[in-house]
Structure formats: C-alpha cells, structure tokens
C-alpha cells in the first residue's frame, strides 16, 4: 500500500567550481554532487562544457545531453566529441534517440575522418516527423499485427509495438508515439476487461495413457531461457570490429593519449587471421588450477568454439623461479579433462627475443630506463610519487646497462628496466612499472639462454598482439559492449557492488566454499545469493513500492492523511524512532494489480469482492464495490477500512512461508511505479528491500528526472531450503 506523492528536484547557483559549473547547465544538486565525487566524470564533463562554450549556463535539455556525452561517449572516437557537442548546442541534435545514433556512428568511424553528410543522415539532423507520419506508421504496425493484438488484448507487448514504429520513424517523439499506440489499442479493443489484468494460465501437458509399468509424474514447463542463457557468447563482437578498440591513457602533465587500431592495421590483422576469432587461455605455470580458471576456460575456449575460431593454451612463463614442468603437465591435462582442445600450445618465452628487441626500442625512444633502486625503495618512491634518481639518465647509458644486464654482467637485484610512465598520476599502475629484472635461474622452457626476464605487465599485452588475439575481457569494456567494469551484468567485484552486493556477503561466500578448493567443480549461483540475502536481510531498509498500481478508494474515510509508522527492519526496537519510516494512509491508496481478483479462492490471500485483507502497516479493508469500465475493465476498487482493527484477515505477510507466494517470474521494467515519499531522497548506492518484491539498489545512472534501481537479488531462496 502506497500513498500517492509528487516528486521534487533540487537547484543550485552558479560559480567557477565544478559543482557550480554543473549546476549552471541544469543538473540538479544531487546529480552534480555525485558527479563531483567521480574525478573521471568530473574531468570529462568539465571538458565537454568548455567544448560546448556553455560555462555560463545553458538550457536544461542541452545540459542533460551534454552530461550523457560526458558519461557515455565512445572512447575510441574522442577526436569527434567537439563536433557532436556543437550539434547539441545548436539544437541540430536534441533528443536521446539522435544522441544514441550519433554515438553509434562515431564509434564505427573511430579516429577516421568524419563524413558530415553521412553523420547527419544517420542522426536524423534536419528531419521533422509530423503527427500524420507517426499515425501512418502506427496504423501499418497495427494492420500487420492485428491478429496477435486482438488475441492478447491489453497483454500485448507495447514495447515491441513501440520498437516496430521506431524502425519506421526513428526520429519520432516517443511521447507522441506512446500516446497514439494507446489510442489505437483503445479503438481496437475498447475498455479493459477483468481478464486483461489476469496472468495467462499455463496449459498442462497431456498425460499419455497409463500402462501397468508406467508411473506418470506431472511436469511444469520451464520458463523460456533468455538469449544470453541460450548463447552466453552473443555479447562478443566479431573480429572485424576491432577498429573500435581504443585505449585512453591519462597523464598528469600532458594531454590524454588515445590509441586505436587504424583501418590499415586491422586489414593486415584480418589477413593473417582470416577473420576468425583468436582467444587465449593464459595460466601461469606456477601452481595447480583452481575453480576460477574454470570460468576463464569456459569463456576463452567456449567463445572460440562457438565462433569456429582458435584458442591458444598459452603459458605465461615469465618467472622461472616459480614455474615447473609438473605444473605445465597438470594444466594441459586438466584443460583436456574439462573438455577443451587448444588450437596451439604456446609460451610467452617463445617471444623472449621479440620482447627484448621491443624493450630496446622503448629505451631508444626515451620511454624506459635502467634503475638501481631496491624493491623497498621502488615501493616507497612509487607510494610517494617520487622519481627514481636514475629516471633521467642518458638514453645511451640505459642502452649499455640493459645490454650488460642481458649478458649477465650485473648482479641479480642490482638493476631493473622500468617503463617511463607518469609518477604523478593518481593511477598507481602508471608509476613506472618494471619491464625486466635479472634472475640467474634456468628457464623450464627456454633453458639457460636468458638471465633477464620480462614482467607480466610488460609481456602479456604484447604477446596478445604478436599472436593476433582478437578477444579479451578488455574489449567488453573499451568497445562499450557493457557499460564498464562495474556493469551489473558482469561478475566483477565492481559489477557486484553496483548491483548492490556487499563486500561482507562476498567474503562469507568465499569462506563458505573454502580458500584451498581446487577440484574444478562449479559453485551454484544460488549459494552466493544465499549469502547476499543473509546480509541484506539485516542491513537493507524496508520500503513500500507498488510496481503496477490499482487505485483503492476508502469510502468511510475523510480527506485527512495519516502518517503510519513502518519498520525499516523486522526487529526494529519500538523506542527507536530512527528504525521507522512513514507510510501515508489516505482516502486514496494504491495496491498491486496482482493483489486483487474478481473471484476468490482458498489459496489466494489478496483482495476480492466482499473480502477483507490487512494493508501492510495500516488497517484491514473490505472490498465493497468494484468500478468497471464498459468491457469490465477494473478502473478502481471501493472499500471500507476498520479503524479499530477488529477484523482479523489472513494475509501473506503474516504467514510463515510467505516467500512461497511470490511470483518467480516477476522481473519487469516499469516506469509508473509508486513509492513512499521517503524514497525520493535515496542516494546512489542506497540499498532497500522492496517489500514482497526483492532487494534493490539505487544505480549510478539515476538522473534528475528519475531514480534507477538495480535488482540485487529476489526474495526467493532455494539454496537454504536444500541445505547450506
């Protein structure tokens, strides 16, 4: 039960600081403050504002589009960002649909010259879509899909209809399209009927005739799997799209370095690979494989197999002291046991000569130097952002010393080759990483030819290039196939955090499976979800949300509003005011559509004509009248409430096994939900239990106009029922 409440937005004043700058372009105060808290987004948005020459302020619509540019512009095409910004400021690009089209176009163009004519055509610049155009497109869609619409009535997927119209008129105003679709549905179907709000019943399978030896067991049809469940590799692009790869390196003392594959480099690469997918499973041969490698093998070998490509088994053997033939043999055996067959078995050590030659070239270009600091000194200087005393030594001196290192003329531990990066960067990985170190240890694969060995940081990416590898997890992020390392769909720690998972629940999960586990058995996801629920049940504040509202009018109540106490946690102490939040109870309240039926039944605990139920945290109400439209569409419910709470209805929220009543297929995207007023103040990262719905977290993509929630996990828990 949720009382209706209007939303609010903040405002701010101007100034020269980033916060004031962001307020000037129309961002609300909370969004501006959250932006300032993210240094990278702050830098991007500040740059975009100056590129747009709107430091003195602009229209809020323009400001929101500029904010989207700052957060979502394709990293491989930053050279074209100033051009796009000018189109926004001049209102040639003025809708999110045009902006998304612009992103797609420049991402495909990358750093090549921008064809303005093609760009404007792709983004719908100058195209005006009339009301008649939209009506004609909707009419065509309804004619093509009339039979399905008539059959499914108001259960028709309006989103699909919207998508069809979008294909015909991509630049049409979405609000107008929605309005016309709703109008056409009403013209074709008339008023909603009660059946339109009921969930479709599943058809039972016909049971075959029973014989003497047969035992027939009823089956429930499994839910239709998603595309990613059917093919988990569908998110990966093809090799010919590698021109989109872009590496963006931020320096403290000079412009951002942006590097991407040119068309010429890509064509040369595709000629070598024949356009096939090339991946690699790159374990270090310094121990036995653990459960984490099973996922890596599935992705690396699985993608190559699914695309008809090749997967290397590459041993990253850059540390001769830790590597043994025992481990190499074990890895190859386990890979085969897991059902994978490598295209070729390679070693990083196969490329030692090329890696050495490239290191010499780095020194010649002034991008590497021989250093004599001890490991402790290197650690201290890196933490303090201090340059090594040998960082600026002459190039010829470093070349000679590196040659001495190679020929075994310098003692182990007395010199390293370090890459000259950026010691003042806030990114610790930019603090002059080690490229080579001295080790007088024979190599299991290369023998005693070398006494200097490359580091993993230096060698790994280079060998990927030398072996023409087309796919690694970096490409998921840099090409925007997902929204970054913190995308909630990824099983990275950052992704889990954005989804609302807590660090303590992850640690509890790891503790539960054991640190030394190495039998390569798969851990079920519901085991992790069990620990997530255990944690969130204690820490996530409860709140009331209605996703699919049905209006209820309390006929025996006046126009006053009562603020009722609701518990944030089940065991909230009665004397602690901070453990409660307010739920408004008034003459008009809203319940879930699924909580009302025209016909009651024994196993149904919701509201029905003549039946009483207890509203959560409020009073018992009894349905006295149902207001229907012309075709039995339920418009609203009339009810009376019992202010003395004499009625004792049986409610799902008071049952011991109320989780069993939840709908396991309730995941939907909704835009017209109602919530208690206090939720308006939710900040990014706040976690809640939407009562009877699941655990949710406020996503960082929340905008000034709307809050965006990610579902962390449902309330249903199958793991604890099976045993921990």
Automatic annotation (TrEMBL):
Listed EC numbers: 6.1.1.18
Top-rank taxon, per record: Eukaryota
Enzyme class: ligase
GO biological process: glutaminyl-tRNA aminoacylation; post-embryonic development; reproductive structure development
InterPro entries given in the database record: aa-tRNA-synth_I_CS, Gln-tRNA-synth_Ib_RNA-bd_2, Gln-tRNA-synth_Ib_RNA-bd_N, Gln-tRNA-synth_Ib_RNA-bd_N_1, Gln-tRNA-synth_Ib_RNA-bd_N_2, Gln/Glu-tRNA_Ligase, Glu/Gln-tRNA-synth, Glu/Gln-tRNA-synth_Ib_cat-dom
Descriptive protein name: glutamine--tRNA ligase
Domain Glutamyl/glutaminyl-tRNA synthetase class Ib anti-codon binding: 540-642
Naturally occurring in which organism (per UniProt): Sesamum calycinum
Family according to the record: Belongs to the class-I aminoacyl-tRNA synthetase family.
Glutaminyl-tRNA synthetase class Ib non-specific RNA-binding domain sequence ranges: 19-174, 177-250
Catalytic activity: tRNA(Gln) + L-glutamine + ATP = L-glutaminyl-tRNA(Gln) + AMP + diphosphate
